[in-house]
Amino acid sequence: MTLINNIKGILKTKNLDEETIYSVLNAVGKIINQNTEYGLLWEPQSEDLMDELLKTYPYFKRIGEINNDSKNNNILIKGDNLYALMGMQNIYMDKRTGKGLIDIIYIDPPYNTENKDFVYNDKFIGDDDQYKHSKWLSFMNKRLLLAKNIMKDDGVIFISIDDHEQAQLKLLCDKIFGEDNMVGMYMWYKSATPPNLSKKIRKNLEYILCYQKKKDNGKFIGISNKSKSLDPTTKPKNAQKEWTFYPGQLVVKKEDGIIKAGTYGTEKYPNELYNDMIVENNTNKNEVTFSNRFIWTQDTLQENLNSKEDNGVVMVASKDLVLSYKRNNYEDVAPNNLIDAKNGVSTTAGKELNKMFDGEEVFSYPKPTSLIKYLIRMCDKKDPLVLDFFAGSGTTGQAVLEFNEENESNARFILVTNNEIDNQKDLDYLIEHKYINNPPKNAKKNSKVYKEWENEVKEFKNSNEYYELQKTNDYQSIGIFESVTRKRLNKLIDENDNSWDKKYLDANLYVYETKNDIKKTPFKELNVENVIDKFVEFIAIKENCFNKEIKDNFVRYTNEKELLIFTNPCLLKSKIVKTAEKEFSDCNKEKIVYANISDEFMNNDIFYKPYPTEILNHLSCVEMEVKD
Fold first, then answer.
1. Which of 10, 13, 543, 613 is most buried by a 10 A CB count?
2. Quick one: what percent of the chain has pLDDT higher than 70?
3. How far apart are CA 99 and CA 55, in angstroms?
4. Model confidence band, residue 12 (pLDDT cutoffs 50, 70, 90)
5. Residue 288: strand pairing partners
6. Secondary structure element (H or E) that encloses residue 315, with its range
7. In which band, very low, low, confident or very high, does the pLDDT at 18 lie, cut at 50, 70 and 90?
8. Can you give the C-alpha Rg of the chain in angstroms?
């Protein structure tokens, strides 16, 4: 209304008549209403990485592997998750059908707290940044939109968050996934002894937002609903019903003999026995009928008593002839929105991780593996593919491997994390390697001598020497990817790693880093085979095939199946078929060939596929240059 009133005041100064003023205000009002929507609005913030992606094609370069000849293949990616998610569009989404391949996503993004845990455009964002929330929302929006693309239609995403951005994240996810696709908000009981940071509240809980890509009738599984006591057969508001038990259908907790017809049970729920009951070996020898406010009809009673399934019941008559029942196997119930120790979820994640690194605290505020395992189990999916693109210390990877061990599953993980080096590790490294001096002893932070030291640090960090130092392997070795995530997974999988006293988990690990050095220049300036060669890992990951052998004109991958990817796009179809049949002459596995062909076809048990549309799009102009 303030805007309308201001416009009205301006129009009145122009000596316009009331009818003209009304028409103008009415038109302005319609424009405002057309552009007004309920939900989350923020000022979009540019991101340097996104600007870079507009100029380049991201791809994955393999930088390591642990191959234990397992059938369980897992992916660890080093690099910014925006690059990684862009690359995954080529792997985990079928562009022709729009279907994704990811079953479960769990992420624990930066919480954007006053502790400067969030980095945007290479700068830590603090409370004094007036665009703090807008930057965080812009950051999350891009990544969640890409993540949604690669989720299966029945895929699920869990996002850990705290009070700082919980409300904004809920509205953002409503916008991206749809309000109707929200499963709910779970609350994780993080700590029984939270720090006293406020005089008004101690925060025991963190939140886990959960959305499905598309709403369905699938059921989440909570803890098993096991009843230690017998369950009642009556309710006060139920109508009076008769139950008839045939010989042997009742467990009677009385000695052998005859129980006369009459009224038994309790004063509140009198149980009327219509005929004498003969008890022999703790069961009814004859047919008997009771009357009470029973929960089931006679037909339902008999269905439960005669059920051959695990959910059948045993009916018990107490000494006072109170009837109750025990189900053989109670159906699992949906999970509560509170996740705590009752769900087997611990609050000791830090101790769990520190123990793996000989007591050293290598990562702040990790999540416990028990929490991630509980979320995976909750989804009740067979051999799920699990993605975590804020992988941090690698908790999700360990959780997936342990989940397999405990549940005879073949779940696989994809982890993405950058190699971020926090300020303290950076400072310790520079001091240890004599690039800068130690801070002055006993000096206050606002003292002249301390500020001089801070200026010394700033001066070095602005130098070309520091710029070159950051590129070295030794410096990069203190980053989170190298010093924590990769080491943690190595301890769990690598049989040659003796630094962790624990059983090695059955899995392979393939390690990649994101690259973006293919510029979107005019295609005629690019080397065709070089471009295809950089994209072959996308195809290999898509086909879950990793043992690599480079040959003339093609790359061969083997695992549970055989894969040929032709890197020369100029070969004739007849040459491709002849080469593939010769290469696969003694192979009995599933055989797949990717090449520069227009359509899929099968020939002599070999499945031929065209390059993914992304590669074809990138190379279409090059192809024309070559063919001409």
1. 543
2. 82
3. 27
4. low
5. 245
6. strand 313-317
7. confident
8. 33
CA distance 548 to 571: 21
- Residue 594 has a pLDDT of 94
- H/E stretch holding 452: helix 448-461
Asked whether 228 and 294 are in contact (CB, 8 A), the reply is: no
Beta-strand relationship, 93-94 and 99-100:
antiparallel
- The predicted model gives 215-231 an average pLDDT of 76
Tell me the DSSP string of 402-434. HHHHHHT---EEEEEE-----HHHHHHHHHHTT
The single-letter code of the amino acid at 448 is K
Average pLDDT over residues 400-422: 93
Three-class SS of residue 517?
A: strand
CB 417 within 8 A of CB 397: no
Residues 60, 518: Cα–Cα separation, whole Å = 12
Q: Give 372's contacts (C-beta < 8 A, 6+ positions apart).
A: 106, 395, 396, 399, 400
- Cβ neighbours of residue 516 under 8 Å, at least 6 residues apart? 52, 53, 56, 57, 58, 59, 83
Question: CB-hemisphere CA count at 13 Å for 280?
Answer: 6
Neighbours of 445 (CB within 10 A): 9
How far is Cα of residue 530 from the mean position of the Cα atoms in its chain?
34
Q: How far is CA 164 from CA 15, 125, 160, 321, in A?
A: 51, 13, 12, 58
**194, 204 in Cβ contact below 8 A?**
yes
pTM value is 0.78
Q: What is the pLDDT of residues 32-80, one digit of tens each?
A: 555 555 566 666 766 777 777 777 778 899 999 999 989 999 999 999 9
Position 151 scores a pLDDT of 96
Q: For residue 569, which amino acid is it?
A: P
Cα 354–359–362 angle (5° rounding)? 50
Answer yes or no: are the C-beta atoms of 465 and 436 closer than 8 Å: no
105 exposure class (CB count in 10 Å sphere: 0-12, 13-18, 19+): buried
DSSP string, 378-401: HHT-SS-EEEESS-TTTHHHHHHH
What is the Cα–Cα distance from 614 to 88, expressed in whole angstroms?
11
Q: How far apart are CA 489 and CA 369, in angstroms?
A: 13
Over the stretch 160-189, which tens digit does the pLDDT of each residue have? Answer: 998 888 999 999 999 999 999 999 999 998
d(CA 286, CA 262): 16
> Rounded to an integer, what distance in angstroms lies between the CA atom of residue 510 and that of residue 541?
9
In angstroms, the CA 278 to CA 287 distance is: 9
Q: Nearest Cα to 545, choosing from 84, 73, 150, 95?
A: 73
pLDDT value for 39: 63
Please say if the pLDDT value at position 121 is more than 90: no
Looking at residues 453-472, what average pLDDT do you find? 91
- Tokens for 42, please give them: 């923020």
β 73-78/508-519 pair status: parallel
What's the average model confidence in pLDDT over 405-414? 94
The burial class, CB within 10 Å (0-12 / 13-18 / 19+), for 110 is buried
Tokens describing residue 223: 């803890």
The strand ranges marked E within 43-171 are 56-66, 73-78, 93-94, 99-100, 102-107, 119-120, 123-124, 151-161
Cβ neighbors of 266 (< 8 A, separation 6 or more) are 320, 322
